[in-house]
Amino acid sequence: MEGHFLVPDYYEDFRCKGGACRRTCCDGWGISVTQAEYFRLLGMDCPPDLRRRIDVAFHAPETPSPERFRLITPTWQGDCPMRAPDGLCALQCACGEEALPAICRLYPRAPRTAFALECSCSGSCERVIEMLMAHKEKMTFHTVPLRFEAELPHGPELRRPQGYYNAVRQMCLEMLQKRELPLSARLMRLCSALRALTPQVSSCPPEDGERRIRYFLLSDTPPAAVPEGLDRALSYARALSRELGENSVSLSSYTAAAEQTLPDEPAWTAAAQRFANLFPDWETEFEQMLVNHLFYDCFPFSDVQENLAQETQSLAATYALLRFLTVGYAQQHPTREDYVDAAAAAFRLIEHSRFDHNAAVVLRHAGCESEAALFGLLQL
């Protein structure tokens, strides 16, 4: 597929770190290939040592399909068997990039076609996180011609005109970049606007919906709800970390560190201050990561079956988990590389699982459903 895609300003500058990457994209993940790719790899002309690797590199999932026909079998160290000792991909080095399965050629790039032609990079890649943290100006977007060899999936059928979706998304990005306000205030205003918009746009004609969106975009009225206390917010963040992270290969070490170093409110207060001293630009860095995530995830239409108010739960959960893990991990691992690694690990879960649904279930069971409860999470 080819077309003119809307991309973030850093997109064209992205370059893979190759062997210098601390946590490669094939480390610890279940990587699948299509039926066509599998048989192409089996029949490919390549050096004998690489042929031996390919012949034992795959196994069948429990329920194979043409789109998910085989899984790459990791080595005892959790690596892809195609990864060479220097950290580079032996398949690409021997046979060129065109030999790679589509998932390896694309990642961390993520083309989207649901609401418009868009493409960004996932925050689960450490190089992307490094670029976002180094980016001090507000993120902008522009259109570039892109071509993808893989067939891109189409999004679900839209329930409202495309202009409505684009207007809501633009509102979200602009609110999140209002730097005259603290980050927590921006997030609360964004969630408040989406929750207020939900009953209005669902009961008015589509063309009237855009007018009301513009009203909320221009409104500077602060949210009316008072955030719940810090102790309650920490209990919600701890529940997210424990329930969603304990079974994650990518996250388990980070969640364990956060649980150990953030047992109560005084510990959090001291840890948050130390984190701010270590990384004084953390609010700008979080802004960049969240703006990238919102664009990547088509927020607030990550799941068009959910309404705008329900999507605010996933935003609060994303911020809270990212904040809880990075602050907690930094207490024993205080370098910027550690900070990058913790953030990338969080986005492995957030952007490559059913995080929106699962986080909503965890928060509901923990009693975090009201606007005040969500605002408490955003105060962390």
Summary of the model, kept short:
The chain is mainly alpha-helical and 380 residues long. It contains 16 helices and 7 strands.
Describe the structure.
Helix 10 (252-261) crosses helix 13 (308-330). The protein is mainly α and 380 residues long. 36% of the residues are buried. A three-stranded antiparallel β-sheet has the order 2-4-3. Helices cover 52% and strands 8% of the residues.
The helix/strand series, from N terminus to C terminus, equals: EEHHEEHHEEHEHHHHHHHHHHH
Strand adjacency order, main sheet = 2-4-3
Q: Count of DSSP E strands? A: 7
Number of helices: 16
Radius of gyration: 22 Å
Helix content: 40-55%
Query: Main beta sheet, described?
Result: 3 strands, antiparallel
Shape type: globular
pLDDT below 50 for ≥5 consecutive residues: which ranges? Answer: none
Structural class: mainly alpha
Q: Hey, roughly how much beta strand do the residues contain?
A: 5-15%
In whole angstroms, the N-to-C terminal distance is 42 Å
What is the residue-averaged pLDDT? 86
Set out the fold topology.
Elements: E1 2-8, E2 32-33, H1 35-42, H2 48-55, E3 58-59, E4 70-72, H3 90-95, H4 102-106, E5 109-112, E6 118-121, H5 126-134, E7 141-147, H6 162-176, H7 183-203, H8 206-218, H9 230-245, H10 252-261, H11 265-278, H12 282-296, H13 308-330, H14 336-351, H15 355-366, H16 371-378
Antiparallel strand pairs: 1-7, 2-4, 3-4, 5-6
Defining traits:
380 residues; globular; mainly alpha; two-stranded antiparallel sheet; 52% helix
